[in-house]
Amino acid sequence: MCRLTSLKKVVTNYPIPLDDASVQMMAKSWPDLTSLTIQGNEMGVAIQALGQLAQYCPLLDELCIPLAVDMDIPLYIPGQPLHSHRLSLICPRGEREPKNPAIVARHLDRLFPFVEVN
Fold first, then answer.
1. b (16+ CB within 10 A) / e for 60-92
2. Which of 50, 25, 35 minimizes the C-alpha distance to 107?
């Protein structure tokens, strides 16, 4: 799917790799993406990888993906800049409860300061 560089909306129920390198490849391949929904994955996206979406997908408005928030997440992620990304809605998928909700919220706010969590 990464060869389809003009995609604007992606919805999949098929398990796809969500490691940092795969998320970076998706983000760089789909710069016009406005909506991304990934379901059917056991593995979640690391908070660090969300920075790739913030950097390379400036038009992204809706993000519904499983997040890997049930592990230790550092308070500060080296190299994670502040963004003014206009993402308006994030819908974390899956059954995972954040190990530290305050740290997850801090990182989401640094990446997507205008987001509403649903």
1. bbbbbbbbbbeeebeeebeebeebebebeebeb
2. 50
In whole angstroms, give the CA distance from residue 61 to residue 75.
26
DSSP one-letter code for 31: T
Distance CA 61, CA 12 (A): 17
Instruction: Give the pTM.
Output: 0.84
Q: Identify whether the C-beta of residue 72 lies closer than 8 Å to the C-beta of residue 45.
A: no
pLDDT (tens digit per residue) in 49-95: 898 999 999 999 999 998 887 666 766 666 666 677 889 888 877 66
